[in-house]
């Protein structure tokens, strides 16, 4: 403009004769930038990233409309905005690069892009491009303009981050797969064409033309760096990659590898708030930010006025500047300088995710103090409110700043406001009519009330039942549709988090009944004085509740595990039964070691028996021995077989119908929710198979039902389920049958079957089992030894976590059981389908799509024509079966038959199959240990007994030397399962919660007529046995006679 003025040619650029000049001048006068207004009169415009968005848009519009003759801009405009011109001038070809900390030449792609803006297709026949550069660079740019330049890959620079993301996803699990993945990149194509650019010498190219070795070395270098930064585990020997929690967090929150290295160095267990801000300022995400001379004054002013925390390094230091801008963002202070403004914008975009990532890292490490501090700052960044300000500032749109200042000045916290009346609040803040408004918003502030009961399970594990009661008024405008709370159990003395989980509170739950959560936590000797259970809101500052769990009066149960040693006996042959008809019932020739050891007691005596042995050790046949003894000695008496699940009843019915009914001519009836036999059938039946509920209903009025008194043998299968939801009914029927037996003086023999128990002695006392009838073998005593692998998978959310387990499940099949049958247990019908489809895809990518199928095409077609379920029809073509309650009976039995005859190798099924159908396999994969509970609307863990039952299906007694089980669990629960799969859990009674229903039933059936009889009735229960042994579990303080009597009378 100055040169034009000197030459007297300013008029050339003038835009005063434009018809819209007057209107536009008004718009320009409103622009934020002073320079924009100044230059407009001369017909010039400016455009750079430091300007406000509105000013930039205005410049673009004016230039396109022809009101600006010249637009002076930075190189980014060439890429971002399509503004063609007749002439383009590149003034100087050097750019300042913050990363390199110096000047670099303008790249050829930029030059081409800028020149591409010359010449407007509608108006010009030709365009002009002028490049002004130093003399030594002239030949370089001329050469580049005349000959084309190839595009090179920049992928090597971010190879580590991308490799980590693939490992976290589970798509790359070893060096071989990583090399294949790299083979699909543009980098690999260019490495082959132009190796010198990527640091590959000609000698290397000649020695390795396919670039395999170089590819491998790139991957191994990246893997070693990631391993050093703890973002994954790289096993040099096998070449396998294992994802770590840190790597997953980095991938999820898009952290750069160099940032993670910084945090590894700087993140400590105890840090102050200013140290945390300083650590965030060191993130490599902000390394492009530079300190400029002209910003110093404003930075110093901001540091004084808007930064409550100390700034390390001050405004002259790069990290000091970033710390100031982070604090300015939270303080909502305004920034004048345009370059500072754009830096502050840039920082604010990454700040939230970096804070969240650091919070996740501390939570996974179990640091309670740092977790709380970082969660505070995550919320502070999201809401732009400092944690030390008043909580009601989060309603600053509705409550005026004056009131908030008054509340902060008077130092009134929320608890005091809860207790105060409207008038008192009005008087306190000197705004009498505003007291009501403040009280109203105190009611909107999210608050939950916690109460918990703690029950010891063993000496090292406590079960916590937590009740969460919301106590605030839900408003969609402030709370949305749901609120997330973090539930943390911590030991503040040792600064350790023992349990954490997310809890989502919905609008419906906020109005309804309290929500109950249950989880297990460890306890260590010597006991700490207390644990704290905290519920902290994920989005509201200061919204947290605390509950103290004191250990002063906690009595832990004594460890008393009595295991029966498996004796080295010679296996008994079938001829020991001494009855040809009985021998014909079995296909084997000798009883297994467990059956041999218990044979005499079961088959030759009337003794009550409790047999605890792992799944798959032939307990059902042991029970049959007791039945055969009854048929020999009291053929007129009945056998009652109680199974807690309908699936087990169905399996027993099918099995015994073929053997006991047809071969021995016995009569058998089934009693479940689906079948209720008539009186005649019940009277004539020799064997009654029933669920606990049905037998409970029938035996309630035992006085008037003769067939209840004719029971000679009662077999209780899976008696360890006493501690599960339906346990109370099982407990009541056994207690009642023992009571009937004592009243009628007709002895009923009890045979209890269970997995290995921790407190077998108590169960035995309750069942009336003497020492000679108690067999409680170790979990390791199996006819087929079992090898268990437990693998942890992080990932907060259920479905993506299940998805990430499919590849490891396929790898487990290939490793442990490439050609033997495999059972995969999942939690839902949908998961059976998704898992099967993923396995098919993985097999196809291995170029072995039908590896799981072993039958000819014509017989396959014939079978497929009989299948009704379309998903099952699809998966069967690849040798994978589905099994769940949604299939009809015909499809289900067809799949079972195909699997047991080894026609298909893999069966994906829901957990009920473990109990119902006896289909053993060589390998069992348990994919996830949670299921969705419709009642509480969240995912809850399977009971340990379910998992043991599923594992018990591994190893087929006739065919395998050993079985294998692979359990894929959520990472935080891995150590819990490692500990408890082999340390048997004690069985506790659940009767206390349901006692009123059962006492009522006994009063109606005249078993109980007064309080004394009720207490006598209680002494027959298992609850009574456990009260003495584990008093704290049932809320008793000690086991003195007086305390017990008072408790029972209550």
UniProtKB/TrEMBL annotation:
GO terms for cellular component: nucleus. InterPro entries: C2_domain_sf, DEAD/DEAH_box_helicase_dom, Hel308_SKI2-like, Helicase_ATP-bd, Helicase_C-like, P-loop_NTPase, Sec63-dom, WH-like_DNA-bd_sf. Gene3D superfamilies: 5' to 3' exonuclease, C-terminal subdomain, C2 domain, P-loop containing nucleotide triphosphate hydrolases, Sec63 N-terminal domain-like domain, Winged helix-like DNA-binding domain superfamily/Winged helix DNA-binding domain. Keywords: ATP-binding, Helicase, Hydrolase, Nucleotide-binding. Pfam families: DEAD (PF00270), Helicase_C (PF00271), Sec63 (PF02889), WHD_SNRNP200 (PF23445). SMART domains: DEXDc (SM00487), HELICc (SM00490), Sec63 (SM00973). GO terms for molecular function: ATP binding; helicase activity; hydrolase activity; nucleic acid binding. RNA helicase that plays an essential role in pre-mRNA splicing as component of the U5 snRNP and U4/U6-U5 tri-snRNP complexes. Involved in spliceosome assembly, activation and disassembly. This is Activating signal cointegrator 1 complex subunit 3.
């Amino acid at each position: 403009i100055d040169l034009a003025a000197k030459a007297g040619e300013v008029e050339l650029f003038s835009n005063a004769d434009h018809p819209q000049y007057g209107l536009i001048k008004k718009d320009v006068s409103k622009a934020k930038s002073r320079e924009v207004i100044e230059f407009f009169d001369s017909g010039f415009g400016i455009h750079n990233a430091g300007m406000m968005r509105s000013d930039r848009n205005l410049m673009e519009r004016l230039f396109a409309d022809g009101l600006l003759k010249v637009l002076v801009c930075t190189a980014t405009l060439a890429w971002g905005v399509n503004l063609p011109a007749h002439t383009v001038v590149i003034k100087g070809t050097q750019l300042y690069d913050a990363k390199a900390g110096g000047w670099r030449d303008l790249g050829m792609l930029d030059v081409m892009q800028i020149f591409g803006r010359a010449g407007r297709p509608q108006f010009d026949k030709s365009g002009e491009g002028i490049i002004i550069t130093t003399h030594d660079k002239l030949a370089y740019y001329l050469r580049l303009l005349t000959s084309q330049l190839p595009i090179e890959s920049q992928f090597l620079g971010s190879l580590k981050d991308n490799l980590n993301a693939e490992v976290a996803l589970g798509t790359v699990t070893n060096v071989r797969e990583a090399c294949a993945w790299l083979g699909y990149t543009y980098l690999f194509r260019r490495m082959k064409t132009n190796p010198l650019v990527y640091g590959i010498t000609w000698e290397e190219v000649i020695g390795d033309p396919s670039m395999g070795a170089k590819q491998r070395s790139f991957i191994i270098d990246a893997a070693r760096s990631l391993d050093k930064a703890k973002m994954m585990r790289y096993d040099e020997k096998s070449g396998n990659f294992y994802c770590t929690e840190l790597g997953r967090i980095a991938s999820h929150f898009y952290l750069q590898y160099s940032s993670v290295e910084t945090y590894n160095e700087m993140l400590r267990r105890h840090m102050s708030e200013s140290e945390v801000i300083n650590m965030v300022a060191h993130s490599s995400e902000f390394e492009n930010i530079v300190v400029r001379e002209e910003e110093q004054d404003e930075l110093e002013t901001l540091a004084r006025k808007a930064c409550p925390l100390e700034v390390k390094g001050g405004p002259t230091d790069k990290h000091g500047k970033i710390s100031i801008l982070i604090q300015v963002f939270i303080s909502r202070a305004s920034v004048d300088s345009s370059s500072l403004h754009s830096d502050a914008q840039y920082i604010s975009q990454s700040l939230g995710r970096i804070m969240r990532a650091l919070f996740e890292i501390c939570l996974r490490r179990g640091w309670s103090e740092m977790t709380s501090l970082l969660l505070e700052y995550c919320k502070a960044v999201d809401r732009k409110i400092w944690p030390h300000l008043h909580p009601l500032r989060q309603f600053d749109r509705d409550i005026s700043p004056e009131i908030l200042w008054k509340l902060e000045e008077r130092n009134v916290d929320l608890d005091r406001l809860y207790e105060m009346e409207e008038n008192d609040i009005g008087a306190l803040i000197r705004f009498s009519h505003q007291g009501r408004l403040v009280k109203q918003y105190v009611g909107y502030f999210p608050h939950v009330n916690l109460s918990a009961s703690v029950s010891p399970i063993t000496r090292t594990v406590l079960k916590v039942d937590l009740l969460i009661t919301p106590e605030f008024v839900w408003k969609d405008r402030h709370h949305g549709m749901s609120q997330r709370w973090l539930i943390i159990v911590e030991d503040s003395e040792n600064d350790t988090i023992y349990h954490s989980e997310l809890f989502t509170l919905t609008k419906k739950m906020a109005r309804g009944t309290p929500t109950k959560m249950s989880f297990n936590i460890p306890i260590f000797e010597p006991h700490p004085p207390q644990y704290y259970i905290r519920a902290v809101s994920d989005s509201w500052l200061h919204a947290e509740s605390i509950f103290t769990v004191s250990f002063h009066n906690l009595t832990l149960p004594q460890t008393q595990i009595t295991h029966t040693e498996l004796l080295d006996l010679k296996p008994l042959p079938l001829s020991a039964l001494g009855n040809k008809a009985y021998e014909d019932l079995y296909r084997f020739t000798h009883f297994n070691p467990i059956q041999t050891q218990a044979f005499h007691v079961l088959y030759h005596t009337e003794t009550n028996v409790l047999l605890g042995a792992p799944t798959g050790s032939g307990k059902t046949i042991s029970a049959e021995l007791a039945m055969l003894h009854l048929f020999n000695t009291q053929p007129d008496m009945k056998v009652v077989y109680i199974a807690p699940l309908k699936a087990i009843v169905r399996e027993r019915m099918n099995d015994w119908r073929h053997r006991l009914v047809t071969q021995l001519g016995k009569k058998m009836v089934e009693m479940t929710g689906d079948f209720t036999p008539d009186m005649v059938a019940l009277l004539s039946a020799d064997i009654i198979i029933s669920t606990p509920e049905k037998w409970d209903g029938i035996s309630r009025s035992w006085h008037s039902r003769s067939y209840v008194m004719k029971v000679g043998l009662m077999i209780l299968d899976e008696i360890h389920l006493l501690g599960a939801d339906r346990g109370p009914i099982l407990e009541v029927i056994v207690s009642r049958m023992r009571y009937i037996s004592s009243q009628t003086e007709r002895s009923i023999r009890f045979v209890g079957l269970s997995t290995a128990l921790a407190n077998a002695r108590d169960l035995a006392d309750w069942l009336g089992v003497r020492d000679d009838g108690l067999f409680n073998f170790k979990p390791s005593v199996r006819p087929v030894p079992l090898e268990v692998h437990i693998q942890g998978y992080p990932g907060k959310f259920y479905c993506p976590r299940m998805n990430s387990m499919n590849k490891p499940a396929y790898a487990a099949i290939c490793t442990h059981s490439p050609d033997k049958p495999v059972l995969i247990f999942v939690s839902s019908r949908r998961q059976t389908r998704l898992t099967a489809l993923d396995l098919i895809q993985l097999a196809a990518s291995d170029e072995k799509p039908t590896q799981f199928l072993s039958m000819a095409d014509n017989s396959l077609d014939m079978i497929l024509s009989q299948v009704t379920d379309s998903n099952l029809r699809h998966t069967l073509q690849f040798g994978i079966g589905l099994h769940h309650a949604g299939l009809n009976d015909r499809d289900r039995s067809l799949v079972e038959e195909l699997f047991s005859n080894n026609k298909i190798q893999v069966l994906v099924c829901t957990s009920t199959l473990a109990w119902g159908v006896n289909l053993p396999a060589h390998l069992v994969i348990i994919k996830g240990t949670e299921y969705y509970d419709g009642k509480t609307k969240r995912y809850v863990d399977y009971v340990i007994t379910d998992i043991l039952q599923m594992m018990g299906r591994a190893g087929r007694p006739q065919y395998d030397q050993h079985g294998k089980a692979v359990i894929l669990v959520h990472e935080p629960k891995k150590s819990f399962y490692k500990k408890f799969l082999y340390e048997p859990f004690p069985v506790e009674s659940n009767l206390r919660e349901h006692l009123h229903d059962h006492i009522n039933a006994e009063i109606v059936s005249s078993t109980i007529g007064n309080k004394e009889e009720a207490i006598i009735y209680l002494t027959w229960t298992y609850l009574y046995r456990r009260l003495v042994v584990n008093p704290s579990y049932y809320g008793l303080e000690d086991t003195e006679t007086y305390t017990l009597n008072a408790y029972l009378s209550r």
